[in-house]
Amino acid sequence: MEPSTSSDSHRFLASPVLFHPFHGENIELLEHRRRALRRVSFEKGIVFSERALLEGECFFISIEDVEGGWSGHLRIGLTTVDPDTRPSVRNLDSNSWLFSISPFIVPLQNPISARSLPTEKGSLIGVYYERSTGTLRIHVVLNGFDICPDFGTIPSDQPFFAVVDVFGSTKEVRVVFSGPRMPSRLYTLCSDRLRCLYNEKRCSLSSLPNPLRSQLEKEWNSGDTTDVSSYFSWKGVR
Question: Do residues 195 and 89 share a domain?
Answer without folding.
Answer: no
